[in-house]
Design goal:
The complex is a heterodimer of chains A (about 110) and B (about 120). Helices cover about 0% and strands about 55% of the residues of chain A. By secondary structure, chain A is mainly beta. In chain A, the strands form two sheets. In chain A, strands 2, 4, 5, 9, 10 and 11 form a six-stranded mixed beta sheet that branches. A five-stranded antiparallel beta sheet of chain A has the order 1-3-8-7-6, with no helix packed on it. Chain B has no helices and eleven strands. Classes of the chains: A mainly beta (about 110), B mainly beta (about 120).
C-alpha cells in the first residue's frame, strides 16, 4: 500500500518562505505531486516531480529525493491567500491510475 | 482547459433517501474518473475508480451496494449514495484527467458536493 506523512500544521509570516515536507512509502513510484486546497474548495494541482531535484513554478518550488522517499514544497514570498491545506500525492503501481494523498498540511499565513 | 463540473454542490436529504451526484468532464474525455470522500480537516480518501463502460473499482472498506457508481459515457460519471444515513454526511469530490496528464499525477477536481443527511 501507500502512506504519505506530512506535518499537520505550519504557521508562517507574510513575505517569508515556508517548506512543507512529505515522506512516503509506496509499492512502486510514479512521481510525487502537490495540491492546494482552500477551505470548502476543491484541490488544485501545483507541481509534479518524477526525478530527483528541484522543480520551480513561480513562487512555488517542489523537491524530490527518491533515495530518501522524501519531498517538499517550498513557498516563497508568502501571501495571505496562500493560507490553505497542502497535500502531497503519489500514483499507485499495479496498472491503476489512482492517486493516494498525504495527510495534508494546514498552512496559516499571518501578517 | 481540463474543467470538471460536479453537481450538486450542496444537498440536504432525509435519512433513508438516495442522493445522486454527477461529475462531468467539460472539455475532455475521461475514461477514468475518481471519487473521493473528505471529512473535515482530513485528507482525501479514494472511494472508487470509475471506468467508462465497465464496473467501478472500489477501495477496501467501501460498500459497493451503498455507493453506486455509473460511468455511462466518456464525460459523465455518477455516484449514488443509497439509503443515506447521518454517518454518510461528508464532502464528496470527483476528479478526472485528460490522457497524458494522468501520467504526471495531474488530476482536475470538481468543486465537490457537501452532503448532509438529517
Amino acid at each position: 500500500g501507500q502512506s504519505l506523512e506530512q506535518p499537520s500544521e505550519v504557521t508562517a509570516v507574510e513575505g517569508a518562505i515556508v517548506q512543507i515536507n512529505c515522506t512516503y512509502q509506496t509499492s512502486g513510484f510514479y512521481g510525487l505531486s502537490w495540491y492546494q486546497q482552500h477551505d470548502g474548495g476543491a484541490p488544485t494541482f501545483l507541481s509534479y516531480n518524477a526525478l530527483d531535484g528541484l522543480e520551480e513554478t513561480g513562487r512555488f518550488s517542489s523537491f524530490l529525493s527518491r533515495s530518501d522517499s522524501y519531498g517538499y514544497l517550498l513557498l516563497q514570498e508568502l501571501q495571505m491567500k496562500d493560507s490553505a491545506s497542502y497535500f502531497c500525492a503519489v500514483r499507485a503501481s499495479g496498472g491503476y491510475q489512482k492517486v493516494t494523498f498525504g495527510t495534508g498540511t494546514k498552512l496559516q499565513v499571518i501578517p | 482547459g481540463a474543467v470538471v463540473s460536479q453537481h450538486p454542490s450542496w444537498v440536504i436529504c432525509k435519512s433513508g433517501t438516495s442522493v445522486k451526484i454527477e461529475c462531468r468532464s467539460l472539455d475532455f474525455q475521461a475514461t477514468t474518473m475518481f471519487w473521493y470522500r473528505q471529512f473535515p480537516k482530513q485528507s482525501l480518501m479514494l472511494m472508487a475508480t470509475s471506468n467508462e463502460g465497465s464496473k467501478a473499482t472500489y477501495e477496501q472498506g467501501v460498500e459497493k451496494d451503498k455507493f453506486l457508481i455509473n460511468h455511462a459515457s466518456l464525460t459523465l460519471s455518477t455516484l449514488t449514495v443509497t439509503s443515506a444515513h447521518p454517518e454518510d454526511s461528508s464532502f464528496y469530490i470527483c476528479s478526472a484527467s485528460p490522457t497524458g496528464r494522468l501520467a504526471k499525477n495531474i488530476q482536475y477536481f470538481g468543486a465537490g458536493t457537501r452532503l448532509s443527511v438529517l
